[in-house]
């Protein structure tokens, strides 16, 4: 079974992958191992960022930032702010903007 460390490293590589740059050789090796075609990843219409998110789901912390509303929270992943009046009673499981999984809340 793949370890968390390997999963995180694979997602990190995909997020930084440049099919035309320095990472092309490694990208083509991974592409051939996964799909039997050296160019499958680079020729894919899917965003490498979205593929990486499937492998390693982004997480965040919702921090109470006060703001104009009593319950204004900010996502640590995308830095978006939200008015969440019932957050204390019904905490969000994911950020409404970026979809990151909420780890804990203030």
Q: Would you summarize the structure shown here?
A:
By secondary structure, the protein is an alpha+beta fold. Helices cover 35% and strands 19% of the residues.
What can you tell me about this protein's structure?
This protein has 106 residues and is an alpha+beta fold. Helix 1 runs antiparallel to helix 4 (48-55). It has 4 helices and 4 strands, in the order H-H-H-H-E-E-E-E. The protein has 2 domains: 4-55, no CATH class; 59-105, no CATH class. The longest helix has 13 residues, at 4-16. The mean pLDDT is 81.
Chain oligomer state: single chain
Bin the helical content: 25-40%
Shape: elongated
User: How many strands in all?
Assistant: 4
Mean pLDDT: 81
Task: Give the SSE order as H and E letters.
Answer: HHHHEEEE
Spatial order of the strands forming the largest sheet: 3-2-1-4
Distance between the termini: 35 Å
Q: How many individual helices?
A: 4
Would you tell me the structural class of the helices and strands?
alpha+beta
Largest sheet: 4 strands, mixed
> Which range does the strand content fall in?
15-25%
What does the radius of gyration come to? 18 Å
Number of domains: 2
Low-confidence stretches: none
